[in-house]
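User: Reviewer 2 asked us to show a designed sequence for the structure in our supplementary figure. I'm pasting the structure tokens here. Could you produce the per-position amino acids so we can include them in the response letter?
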């Protein structure tokens, strides 16, 4: 499965890529909203993991951009902050759910299974 990870922190992005690879998934990395949209538009993305806080935009903005193009691809907003307004804002924009960046590989695998990944 091809998973797009939008994350501006290089270490976090590489950690997610490593875990997704261990679970058998191909990972496409983007570090900005603009790059994330470009990669998505190239096609083949089957699930998106997006950070909330990004340079020159944020995850909710990205979710809205993707939802204007596709209502089908599952999107999970990742954050280090457990703020109820972020969760509500993400769901209102079209995210399927929110999750903590601090999840381990087991929890990541369980989350992906919900989306048939």
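Assistant: Here is a per-position design you can include in the supplement:
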């Amino acid at each position: 499965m091809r998973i797009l990870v939008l994350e501006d922190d290089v270490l976090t992005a590489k950690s997610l890529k490593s875990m997704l690879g261990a679970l058998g998934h191909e990972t496409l990395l983007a570090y900005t909203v603009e790059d994330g949209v470009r990669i998505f538009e190239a096609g083949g993305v089957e699930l998106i993991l997006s950070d909330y806080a990004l340079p020159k935009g944020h995850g909710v903005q990205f979710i809205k951009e993707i939802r204007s193009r596709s209502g089908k691809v599952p999107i999970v907003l990742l954050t280090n902050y457990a703020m109820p307004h972020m969760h509500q804002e993400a769901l209102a924009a079209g995210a399927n759910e929110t999750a903590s960046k601090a999840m381990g590989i087991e929890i990541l695998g369980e989350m992906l299974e919900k989306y048939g990944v």
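For the response letter, you might also mention the following. The first helix runs from residue 10 to 22. Residues 2-114 form a domain with the Rossmann fold fold (CATH 3.40.50.2300).
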